[in-house]
């Protein structure tokens, strides 16, 4: 299940590094740096439209400038949302 929007279609979920592996290679294998996200939220994170800090989702100003109204509205719906335990999400995925 996506930790942000709760989408639960397995084919649309991906394990994502919160902090990019390229920014800190030692953090790449750190399980606490991984989270399960849907493909939309994964791309939004990779493209800098959202960020995740201290288990909260933040929409970046870039969303307001670059996204269509419907995408902007969807992403803003989760702004300031507290997300659940990342490790639990990964454990759920590995059991399926
Ligand atoms: Zn999502």
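-> sequence recovered:
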């Amino acid at each position: 299940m996506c930790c942000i929007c709760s989408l639960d279609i397995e084919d649309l979920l991906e394990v994502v590094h919160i902090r990019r592996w390229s920014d800190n290679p030692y953090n790449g294998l750190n399980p606490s740096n991984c989270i399960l996200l849907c493909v939309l939220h994964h791309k939004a994170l990779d493209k800098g439209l959202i960020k995740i800090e201290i288990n909260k989702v933040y929409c970046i100003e870039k969303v307001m400038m670059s996204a269509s109204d419907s995408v902007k509205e969807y992403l803003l719906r989760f702004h300031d949302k507290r997300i659940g335990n990342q490790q639990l999400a990964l454990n759920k995925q590995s059991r399926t």
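The chain has one domain: 10-95.
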